[in-house]
């Protein structure tokens, strides 16, 4: 993980306001990093940067909306090593029609040892860590035995 991180930003509808407030508060720390967002979250994050740092707004990568495939796009980026940190503000009080996609993202973060923050408090701790601004080599899990198993 290089000093400049690739950060996935996702928020359920009921948590989008929290994400906007969080990005608004942390935009200076987020500016040097590569931001990858699902659908509407990306549009809202882009609006924050248009107000604060217009030159950075066009650099934000916007995927499809989560339920329309954006979660799978984010998962593919995680599995291919293109996301270092996933900030996913989850609404635990609302049933999501794409709940399996959400669980898949959580699972992929575990499989590939990707930092995941599902609450604003955790995201605050992640972004305020000294490791956030440094190169960092996460411990990788060796799946050779799994890949070479007899089936």
Amount of helix: 40-55%
Number of strands: 5
Distance between the ends: 34 Å
Order of strands across the main sheet? 3-2-1-4-5
C-alpha Rg (nearest Å): 16 Å
Enzyme class: lyase
Pfam family, one: MGS
Binding site for substrate: 12, 16, 38-41, 65-66, 98
Family: Belongs to the methylglyoxal synthase family.
Which descriptors would you attach to this protein?
151 residues, alpha/beta, 5-stranded parallel sheet, 7 helices, 5 strands, MGS-like_dom_sf
Could you explain the architecture of this structure?
The protein has one domain: Methylglyoxal synthase-like domain (Rossmann fold), CATH 3.40.50.1380. Helix 1 (about 15-30) links the parallel strand 1 (about 5-10) and strand 2. By secondary structure, it is of the alpha/beta class. Strands 3-2-1-4-5 form a 5-stranded parallel β-sheet, sandwiched between helices. It is globular, with a radius of gyration of 16 Å. It contains 7 helices and 5 strands, in the order βαβααβαβαβαα. Helix 1 (about 15-30) crosses helix 2 and helix 4 packs parallel to helix 5 (about 100-110). Catalyzes the formation of methylglyoxal from dihydroxyacetone phosphate. It is an enzyme of class 4 (lyase). Keywords: Lyase.
Please outline the helices and strands:
Blueprint: E1 6-11, H1 16-30, E2 34-37, H2 39-52, H3 54-57, E3 61-62, H4 70-79, E4 85-89, H5 99-111, E5 115-117, H6 120-128, H7 144-147
Parallel strand pairs: 1-2, 1-4, 2-3, 4-5
Helix pairs in contact: 1-2, 4-5
